[in-house]
Amino acid sequence: MIQVRELTKLYGKKQVVENVSVDIQRGQITSFIGPNGAGKSTLLSMVSRLLDADTGEVLIDSTNTKKLKSNEFSKRVSILKQSNFMNVRLTIRELVSFGRFPYSKGRLNEEDEKMVDQAIDYMDLKELENSYMDELSGGQRQRAFIAMVIAQDTDYVLLDEPLNNLDMKHSVQIMKILRRLVDELGKTVIIVLHDINFASVYSDRIVALKNGRVVKDGPTEEIIQSAALKEIYDMDIPIQQMDNCRICVYFNS
Amino acid sequence: MKKRYLIPALIILSVISLFVGVSSISIIDLLDFQSEETQIFLISRLPRLVAILLAGAGMSMAGLIMQQLSRNKFVSPTTAGTLDATRLGILVSMLLFANASMLEKMTVAFAFALAGTFLFMQILDRIKFKDAIFIPLVGLMFGNILSSITTFFAYKADVIQNMSAWLQGDFSMIMKGSYELLYISIPVFIIAYIYANRFTVAGMGEDFSKNLGLKYRSVVNIGLVLVALITATVVLTVGMIPFLGLIIPNIVSIFKGDHLQKTLPHTAMLGAIFLLACDILGRVLIYPYEISISLMVGVIGSFIFLFLLFRRKAYA
């Protein structure tokens, strides 16, 4: 379990994240949603130690993250940021191999190679493994990054808007993969999402932020309610039940 | 771009280099250890070859590390002010210590090269507009500012003539006793190879590095120290060799990608081959005179650079 305790982050005098406390359960997908500038990405960056919090602390399975060495931390928590702008010419296999960096520092042993193979197979990238990243489509590239995270073999996988710049087909593909990571491999996924319908259909829990504060936190079906969404987004959003999915029809509200 | 082509090319060019020159030397002459030919061979030809190989490999490697750490294919000691900072350092050492020893000059030049490169990386951090072409332009401007400071003080101190010797890379002055500083690049090369994987990870950005548990800042700093060391030794012994650190890593990257552990040896070898070829050409073209290496590399290199610029649109 990840326990976020009274985290605060200031940019100048502006509080971007204000006294946030959240518990994130193991073996679930937890989505962070909220309007632009709500502090979702900042919160995720602090949990993953990319940013230092001004006050507050984060506990991972009851250990304060500050007490973990960066190498140890990277074996337990991985993070993918929104725009993995790849200027570097690496093949998929080379990139995925770097997922083993915390364990092997680049000198891969047999077990590392096995993990890399598994990750590539799991993401269905075997045929592409020797293609360069800059020759791939956005969806393939995102899959390669997720394969790297699988090779990194962390309990917690954090993703900052992984669906950015992806078309519908690839967005669905990525979300299904994340669902499988949780259901099949027992990972814990925390994800920042813009599209509330993806959050509604795929996540177990939703944490809604607004102006740096948590305004809603609970199981998906409690948050995907017109009243709750009104509070988060200041919009009247009708909700339609379709099969098992609750879809927010926000386009003309 | 395979090793089985690079290594024979390197050997053949090395042999040619040893036997091209004003005084003709044949292998038979070398059998007599006392002969004048053998002396020329040992005092001039061999040091020259070693200097070319080390400088070529070193500068390309420095360029590769810089490109990786700055995440920009057009950054190199030439386009980031490192060369100019080194030259300023040499001037300062000349002004401060009247008869500076090689080691004193080296220390000051290294300090300036490091400070200059570091400053450029700081500027880079602050630039929001990270266009691939814009950043080396900033670097060139930065280098020119440093260069004009150097020229100003060199003019004041009446050492312009002396300084311009460092403006032009030149292997014709390399002799036994004047190039040994270049051997510093051998341990640098080994360290760079050990750090190759870390440089590759760092090249994918700070967030990416932190995710993999890499101490980003210290890896970048080590890289900059290596770059400054190589640049300082090369400029002090040979002079400025423009473009080398820019084009060689780019050519290798096109064929072999950016996994440094795989590309470092190729980059070093291709750099040595390219510099060797330019040097031989410069010695043969207006025989028995010589065209300086920086001119040769500058002319050939700028054409390749232009080619890379246009090509970039196709594959970026």
Describe the structure.
The complex is a heterodimer of chains A (253) and B (316). Chain A is α/β, with parallel strands linked by helices and 253 residues long. In chain A, 35% of the residues lie in helices and 27% in strands. Chain A is built from ten helices and twelve strands. In chain A, strands 6-7-8-3-9-10 form a six-stranded mixed β-sheet, sandwiched between helices. In chain A, strands 2-1-4-5 form a four-stranded antiparallel β-sheet, with helices on one face. In chain A, strand 11 (239-242) and strand 12 (245-248) form a beta hairpin. Chain A is globular, with a radius of gyration of 18 Å. The mean pLDDT of chain A is 92. Chain B has 316 residues and is mainly alpha-helical. In chain B, 74% of the residues lie in helices and 0% in strands. Chain B contains 14 helices and no strands. Chain B has helices at 3-19, 27-31, 36-70, 82-96, 102-126, 134-156, 160-167, 185-194, 196-202, 206-211, 216-237, 244-256, 260-285, 293-315. In chain B, helix 5 (102-126) packs across helix 11 and helix 8 (185-194) runs antiparallel to helix 11.
Attribute tags:
heterodimer; A: 253 residues; alpha/beta; six-stranded mixed beta sheet; four-stranded antiparallel beta sheet; 10 helices; 12 strands; 27% strand; globular; B: 316 residues; mainly alpha; 0% strand; ATP hydrolysis activity (chain A); iron transport (chain A); nucleotide-binding (chain A); ion transport (chain A)
